[in-house]
């Protein structure tokens, strides 16, 4: 029996497997998105804990904005793994990061779940190529790695393993993008994915600096939160670098600051700025701006920088936080 | 003739040397702070260009918040370098990054300026140890490296060279902190200082990823702006990592995620998590929180995350920006 996969817009019921920190937050996210959420977690007390968390966090979801139909009453727990697998339009799995257990779980899910249903893992440290190896129908298994908590932080990475069908990965990317996430649809697996790699680059440089007595933990946090971190909430590091090039954008920036890549300004050595990388950065940046001019990007950066700092100042003043 | 250095609170006149992108923005910053700003720049048309910039950006300074007495009419240009040096309580130098020229300039400034006046450089790429070597009184020469534009981005690093007096560096750190900046007072010189090192770690990892076809420029920017960048506008990477440890904070986080430092999640290898580094991170983080609990930090993060995303959404909606 093969049923066609529904259009991502037509997903009614999201299956949440595991209700720990990540799985529970996924459940909140899809309740906020106005979906039916069916949960499976065999741990004693899981249902009560999740229902308490939903009640506790509902006002946060309201502040973030509820989609039509969003209702905590749409949270249900399945009576068995079998009935869970038979009654969902997509599964988001968030269990502990142990490869053998996850391989066995995916084989079981694959056997119990209709072939057209996409089975997605929240894994941050494992590769779907490894997880899917005992599945009879691995084509519909994918990874959607969120940032925590997924109801609050929009970014996620969607990627398949070697046996995943491109169509299933595309479907998942569209589904999550339609449902409040900002998706990077990756063409290949990469340890650490994208966001954690970038985050780890800062974290490791910070650890080296503290290890060598070059600066304090407080200095590192101050440097980012009152420095580039303010800008990165508005647009990412590439756009911010391109804005250093003024009207000339990324191209002018690379021309001007390319030589500084040779400086020992971090322990990470830069790649050679070849003609090919130069073109990839310039073309890639131009493709990323949605046709907006550098002047428009600069205006957005300035306006939002002012507003964000006002928000932070008002919050801190009203809470007596000195910073 | 030796005059005592005034208390940092009592500085009346800030001397701005150079009116390029950085120097001009410093002039705006100190006008916003309610200071007299005396400028020296011998380039033809410099005065007219800066006055136009002040007029153009004054509304931005108003939105950022003006200190008492802030007035564009308090901007004056010196008739000569000699009269500039004789009539300022501190000099902030922002000329091009050429060491021989900067060495000669500092020797000249040192000869013309009363001994008690601190002479500060905006340099990002040179070391004060090198810049100050031809000064007769190098003790009062320091670096204050800002992020651009300094009237908008609060963070700066204050550090001396080998011949700088600790008292002068401390004085400068206090002066900038009193005048709207968030200062990291560094104990030693470090190529790239703090902020640019952390920023470059991300930028170089991003270049490697594009170079290897691992992801696109758009993916990198999306990963940061909709991921950790949102959190880093509120508190820096160390505090955000510590929040992953829940009530256990940094200590629990290092216990739990320490092993992931061995993962190839960036091209930058992490240092060994020795007992000494472990203690430095835990104690350094605890010293950085101003006595606030993990629960208070978590509440600030959540509340500000919601508000910042509302601000960004409202701005983008009102400007028809799809993102």
Automatic annotation (TrEMBL), chains A, B:
<dbReference type="Pfam" id="PF02737">
    <property type="entry name" value="3HCDH_N"/>
</dbReference>
<dbReference type="InterPro" id="IPR013328">
    <property type="entry name" value="6PGD_dom2"/>
</dbReference>
<dbReference type="GO" id="GO:0006631">
    <property type="term" value="P:fatty acid metabolic process"/>
</dbReference>
<dbReference type="GO" id="GO:0070403">
    <property type="term" value="F:NAD+ binding"/>
</dbReference>
<keyword id="KW-0560">Oxidoreductase</keyword>
<dbReference type="InterPro" id="IPR008927">
    <property type="entry name" value="6-PGluconate_DH-like_C_sf"/>
</dbReference>
<protein>
    <submittedName>
        <fullName>L-carnitine dehydrogenase</fullName>
    </submittedName>
</protein>
<dbReference type="InterPro" id="IPR036291">
    <property type="entry name" value="NAD(P)-bd_dom_sf"/>
</dbReference>
<feature type="domain" description="3-hydroxyacyl-CoA dehydrogenase NAD binding">
    <location>
        <begin position="13"/>
        <end position="186"/>
    </location>
</feature>
<feature type="domain" description="3-hydroxyacyl-CoA dehydrogenase C-terminal">
    <location>
        <begin position="192"/>
        <end position="262"/>
    </location>
</feature>
<dbReference type="InterPro" id="IPR006108">
    <property type="entry name" value="3HC_DH_C"/>
</dbReference>
<dbReference type="GO" id="GO:0016616">
    <property type="term" value="F:oxidoreductase activity, acting on the CH-OH group of donors, NAD or NADP as acceptor"/>
</dbReference>
<dbReference type="InterPro" id="IPR006176">
    <property type="entry name" value="3-OHacyl-CoA_DH_NAD-bd"/>
</dbReference>
<dbReference type="Pfam" id="PF00725">
    <property type="entry name" value="3HCDH"/>
</dbReference>
């Amino acid at each position: 029996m093969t049923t066609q996969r529904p259009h991502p817009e037509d997903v009614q019921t999201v299956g949440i497997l595991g209700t720990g920190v990540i799985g529970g937050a996924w459940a909140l996210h899809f309740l906020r998105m106005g979906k039916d959420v069916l949960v499976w977690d065999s741990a004693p007390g899981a249902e009560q804990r999740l229902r308490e968390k939903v009640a506790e966090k509902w006002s946060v979801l309201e502040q973030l904005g509820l989609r039509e139909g969003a209702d905590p009453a749409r949270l249900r727990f399945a009576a068995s793994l079998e009935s869970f697998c038979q009654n969902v339009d997509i599964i988001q799995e968030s269990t502990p990061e142990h490869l053998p257990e996850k391989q066995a779980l995916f084989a079981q899910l694959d056997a119990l779940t209709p072939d057209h249903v996409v089975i997605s893992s929240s894994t941050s440290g494992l590769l779907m190529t490894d997880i899917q190896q005992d599945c009879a129908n691995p084509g519909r298994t994918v990874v959607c790695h969120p940032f925590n908590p997924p109801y609050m932080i929009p970014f996620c990475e969607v990627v398949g393993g070697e046996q995943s069908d491109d169509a299933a990965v595309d479907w998942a990317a569209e589904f999550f993008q339609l449902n409040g996430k900002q998706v990077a649809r990756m063409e290949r697996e990469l340890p650490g994915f994208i966001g954690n790699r970038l985050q780890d680059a800062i974290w490791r440089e910070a650890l080296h600096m503290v290890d060598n007595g070059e600066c304090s933990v407080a200095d590192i946090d101050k440097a980012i939160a009152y420095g580039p971190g303010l800008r990165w909430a508005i647009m990412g590091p590439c756009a911010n670098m391109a804005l250093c090039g003024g009207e000339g954008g990324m191209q002018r920036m690379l021309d001007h600051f390319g030589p500084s890549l040779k400086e020992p300004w971090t322990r990470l050595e830069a790649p050679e700025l070849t003609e090919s990388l130069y073109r990839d950065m310039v073309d890639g940046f131009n493709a990323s701006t949605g046709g907006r001019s550098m002047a428009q990007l600069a205006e957005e950066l300035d306006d939002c920088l002012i507003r964000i700092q006002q928000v932070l100042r008002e919050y801190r003043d009203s809470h007596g936080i000195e910073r």
